[in-house]
């Protein structure tokens, strides 16, 4: 019996959200008096995988099949199921990412496991009962969910668990083959297209986000958002109407029908704070709102605010960040 | 081509969330329910593809009690041909997926579409469970879907980009923007929806695997600290020294 953690890698690096997942898994293992093994998906280097020891992982299973570099639902599901079987894993922890949700839901049927996604805290384990806290109602509420059965899958929401860093500890990396066949790659992507990210920071992974709404008046003014984001090392985002009229690409749209983000800092510029927008951002640790209308609903959800014109305020903020750095 | 579109019935997006006194259930009192916004992408795209092919059917499926019928009728008004309601309280994603799979198993559907997740439970799981129960591929979340014969080309969102995926029918896809512009019903649609078939079937006895012990609301914000616009730079110092986030 063990805990299996699924770590997603990109270009040889373990993703930040997977460092959180590994930390979550190793803490659950400790609660249960067992150890946590990781299985790596994506393009991974041995040196980076060994570093998962810092997050409390003792062993990492690595299938070096080159076709696993890009996400393939069929192959990933089979690989993780095989690793779970090998390790006799009763708990499987993955990221609440597009990969984690796609694979987790198929695995829950294959392994006859109960599953909770969007999980924001370590579980409460009390005798036979196992309860996790998850976000619900698009960030407007939480639910304590009891997971039944003796196999459980947990998808952890990004930025909700602090990653452990026990310097110098390493995990043992072990070659592993799930014996994948061509049929397992039937849904392999024909092509992978990466987006052009402002400053190269991915919105779903970002710690800091600078976001613009209709108050920015037009795409020609987005340099103000981008300059502040660049100075801070932040990702950029936008409200729905902004992406609906193509001022910004759809993958930047946050909210109830867009991406849900929970960064340490969310700076909203010229966004009114409609309930559907708040739904995707209100679990951010600190929210800053810049709006010329003092009655804008966003101020109620904010920690810091500036009542002012974005065209006047944004350059001042960028300047102040540069002075600080 | 036969399309099956799964829709869920969710509180309107502007709803202030509240729970029953024991915190076990969402408090429905006075709340307007709508078709899950993500499901509208699935529904509209299925109708568009059917129209483009000049034939086929779009069946709407909902697992829910009788109070979901107004939104099933709305889906028919938007352009679905017929509907099935599995008469049950949707207990959890596993329960719902089993009901969908049991309808789909014998229905001969080529394409099963649904929204990426429901805006109430935010599970993002039903698509994968249905695919696995039926032993067919799933593509989630899909931002684009085109069909050519029995081959579908989809754009699937990945963190930081997209994958172009080709799968053969039958398959399951969970949909999100910018797949299409969701349609709203017109008067003719509303009139014809009344006469379209809506079949009610009983649930299979399958159990759920999870149970909500309690719902809770997030803690209230402490109140906003306002910084005068003239000294906007002070905000940056506060974010570093007080909030410690930069
Ligand atoms: C089913 C459904 C789902 C939805 N999902 C989403 C979603 O996922 N995400 C989302 O964002 N929205 C969503 N919406 C839309 C949402 O209701 C709002 O319409 C939207 O968030 C408003 O965007 P906005 O704040 O950018 O624009 P507006 O509402 O137009 O607000 C612009 C703001 O900018 C301020 N402003 C203007 N000029 C300046 C200036 N020079 N300086 C400073 N401030 C200025 C104004 O005071 C105003 O507050 C959804 C709606 C529905 C019905």
From TrEMBL, chain A:
Family: Belongs to the ETF alpha-subunit/FixB family.
InterPro entries for this protein: DHS-like_NAD/FAD-binding_dom (IPR029035), ETF_a/b_N (IPR014730), ETF_a/FixB (IPR001308), ETF_asu_C (IPR014731), Rossmann-like_a/b/a_fold (IPR014729)
Keywords on record: Electron transport, Transport
PANTHER family (alphabetical): ELECTRON TRANSFER FLAVOPROTEIN ALPHA, ELECTRON TRANSFER FLAVOPROTEIN SUBUNIT ALPHA, MITOCHONDRIAL
Official protein name in the record: Electron transfer flavoprotein subunit alpha/FixB family protein
Xref: Gene3D superfamilies: HUPs, TPP-binding domain
Cited Pfam families: ETF (PF01012), ETF_alpha (PF00766)
Domain Electron transfer flavoprotein alpha/beta-subunit N-terminal: 3-192
Keyword Amino-acid biosynthesis recorded: no
Automatic annotation (TrEMBL), chain B:
Superkingdom of the organism of origin: Bacteria
Keywords attached to this entry: Electron transport, Transport
Pfam families linked to this entry: ETF
Domain Electron transfer flavoprotein alpha/beta-subunit N-terminal: 23-210
Alphabetized CDD domains for the sequence: ETF_beta (cd01714)
Signal peptide range in chain numbering: none
Family the UniProt entry places it in: Belongs to the ETF beta-subunit/FixA family.
Name the UniProt record assigns to this protein: Electron transfer flavoprotein subunit beta
């Amino acid at each position: 019996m063990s805990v299996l953690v699924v770590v997603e890698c990109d270009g040889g690096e373990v993703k930040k959200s997977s460092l959180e997942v590994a930390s979550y898994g190793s803490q659950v293992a400790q609660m249960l008096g067992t150890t946590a093994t990781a299985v790596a998906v994506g393009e991974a280097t041995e040196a980076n995988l060994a570093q998962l020891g810092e997050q409390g992982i003792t062993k990492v299973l690595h299938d070096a099949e080159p076709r696993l570099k890009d996400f393939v639902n069929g192959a990933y599901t089979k690989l993780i199921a095989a690793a779970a079987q090998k390790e006799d894993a009763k708990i499987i922890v993955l990221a609440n990412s597009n990969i984690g949700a796609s694979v987790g839901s198929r695995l829950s049927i294959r392994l006859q496991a109960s599953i909770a996604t969007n999980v924001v805290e370590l579980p409460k384990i009390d005798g036979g009962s196992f309860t996790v806290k998850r976000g619900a109602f698009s960030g407007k509420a939480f639910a304590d969910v009891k997971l039944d059965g003796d196999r459980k899958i947990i998808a952890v929401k990004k930025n909700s668990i602090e990653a452990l860093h026990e310097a110098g500890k390493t995990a043992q990396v072990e070659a592993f083959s799930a014996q994948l066949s061509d049929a397992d790659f039937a849904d392999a992507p024909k092509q992978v297209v990466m987006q052009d990210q402002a400053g190269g920071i991915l919105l779903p992974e970002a710690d800091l986000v600078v976001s613009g709404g209709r108050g920015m008046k037009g795409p020609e003014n987005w340099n103000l958002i981008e300059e502040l984001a660049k100075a801070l090392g932040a990702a950029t985002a936008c409200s729905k109407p902004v992406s609906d009229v193509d001022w910004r690409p759809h993958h930047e749209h946050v909210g109830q029908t867009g991406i849900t983000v929970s960064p340490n800092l969310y700076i909203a510029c010229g966004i009114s704070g409609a309930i559907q927008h708040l739904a995707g951002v209100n679990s951010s640790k600190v929210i800053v709102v810049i709006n010329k209308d003092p009655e804008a609903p966003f101020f109620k959800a904010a920690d810091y605010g500036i009542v002012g014109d974005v065209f006047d305020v944004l350059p001042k903020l960028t300047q102040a960040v540069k002075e600080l750095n | 081509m036969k399309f099956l579109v799964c829709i869920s019935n969710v509180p309107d997006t502007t709803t202030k969330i509240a729970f029953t006194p024991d915190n076990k259930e969402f408090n429905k009192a006075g709340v307007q329910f709508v078709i899950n916004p993500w499901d509208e992408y699935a529904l509209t795209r299925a109708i568009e593809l059917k129209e483009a092919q000049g034939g086929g059917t779009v069946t709407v499926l909902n697992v829910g009690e009788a109070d979901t019928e107004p939104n099933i009728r709305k889906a028919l008004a938007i352009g679905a041909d017929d509907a099935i309601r599995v008469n049950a309280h949707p207990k959890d994603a596993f329960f719902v997926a089993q009901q969908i799979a049991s309808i789909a198993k014998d229905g001969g559907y080529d394409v099963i579409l649904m929204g990426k997740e429901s805006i109430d439970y935010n599970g993002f799981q039903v698509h994968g469970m249905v695919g696995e129960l039926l032993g067919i591929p799933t593509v989630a979340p899909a931002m684009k879907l085109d069909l050519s014969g029995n081959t579908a080309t989809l754009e699937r969102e990945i963190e930081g980009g997209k994958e172009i995926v080709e799968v053969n029918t039958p398959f399951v896809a969970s949909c999100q923007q910018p797949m299409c512009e969701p349609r709203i019903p017109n008067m003719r649609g509303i009139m014809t929806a009344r006469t379209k078939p809506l079949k009610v079937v009983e649930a299979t006895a399958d159990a759920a695997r999870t149970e909500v012990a309690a719902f809770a609301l997030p803690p209230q914000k402490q109140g906003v600290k306002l910084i005068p616009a003239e000294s906007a730079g002070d905000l940056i110092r506060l974010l570093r020294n007080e909030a410690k986030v930069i």
